[in-house]
Amino acid sequence: MSKTFEKLKPYLDKAMAFQTARSLFEWDEQTLAPLEAAEYTSKIVGTLSDEYFKSLINDKVRKLLKKLQEEKELDELTDHEKAIIKELNKIYEQLESIPPKEYRAYNELTSISSRKWVKAKKDNCFDDFAPYLQKIVDYKKKFANYRAKGTKNPYDVLLGDFEEGFGIKELDILFEKVKQEIIPLLKKVSEKATTIDKSYNYLDYDLDKQKEFCRYLSGYVGFDFNRGVIAESAHPFTLSLHNHDVRITNHIYSNNLESAMFSIIHESGHAIYEMSVDDAITQTLVGGGTSMGMHESQSRFFENMIGRSEFFWEPIYEKLVATYPKQLKDISLIHFIKGINKAAPSLIRTEADELSYPLHIIIRYEIEKMIFSGEITVAELPKIWNQKTMEYLGITPPTDSAGVLQDTHWSWGEFGYFPSYAIGTAISAQIYSHMKEIMPFDQYLKEGNLTPIREYLKDSIHKYGSTKTSKEILYNMTGEEFNADYYVNYLKDKYEKLFHLNK
Q: What is the DSSP string of 356-418?
């Protein structure tokens, strides 16, 4: 470690401590805190955010950072230290132009707004949430414009925070390809899938038994309960304090068996990524996933490529039936597999099948573009949401809770996040194709042996944290650049075989 980096390290450690404390409050707010705590707790979150900001954005850190980018200094740094300096540069780009008072106020706001969203969704009342969302949008526009400095589209700035190299231009191309290829395929599959009776999924399922089976599923795919916990929240999410404390949540419905099962597999995919980050870089600026696109590639990989596979369920389907004998006694494994892969337009993104899922992302992406171009207002969101849902899915949400209020992301200020789901799903298909070539992937699933799959992902992706970019990791792993054709071909191949479309 260079002497200059050694001087910088206390500032980085302090910032990490404040960030960890903020994360703990976020976890508590979403899982255990009483509803009326938000207004008061937000002041604590504001103070922690202010101290985090000051610990990094100051003259001493600025001078050290500048010095560490000199050629002589760079030569003395390890690869991990160079990656940390690169990440610190990104943070400076994001924060330096924002006035500290506005940064603090914004963090207090999102601490409150996430709880206001929970209540608004429960009460099915967008108007109760709208004033908070309006303030968030105003802040995000202001912050994006600070950083854009008149040279970039503000929405491009926000997109870049979640996936570097995927701006409006690249996403428009990706989503146009998806629309051209997937919408016609969805129509064909939906017509074929009408013969599948999925009524078993909507019978009454005991909540405690669901919790127990979901815990089993999480451990089965690789979640380490010595380093992680599961709780419940209004919207499932994953939060990592470091690689030995990773927390996930789930939401369980008594009349929808699939919902909690696939949410827990999805979140476990996120958690496995965080738990597999190298010990040498955890609790540093590069100690988490490299991008939200790569992170979503792992959650979607576990949820879909693994979790919706017949081979995955072969060793454990009897356990599922034994858990719910009354509801599933007459449902064969083949029937169940077709059920969990049945494709048809539906309202809720997190419960959508693989074919209709990208259309949910396109809806959100196009709405976010409209918000940040000034084309629509927050007050118009329910109407625009319903129009877009009808345009792409052919259905209209009957309530705000099933429509514009269904996702928590905007309450956290995460504008620009949703495209990461599509990017990640496309990456997961490319990774899946590669892994099928180099290992007996299906055989491992049939044997109930996910260890070789997890270990390969760890060695190729997870252990690096964000010391490498998504593009570097993908190229080093597969020998190819990002290619959305893998995603389209994966969906076509899967559904043509599953529903015999060529017959």
A: THHHHHHHHHHHHHHHHTTSS-GGGHHHHHHHHHHHHHS---SSSTTTTTS-SGGGGT-TT-T
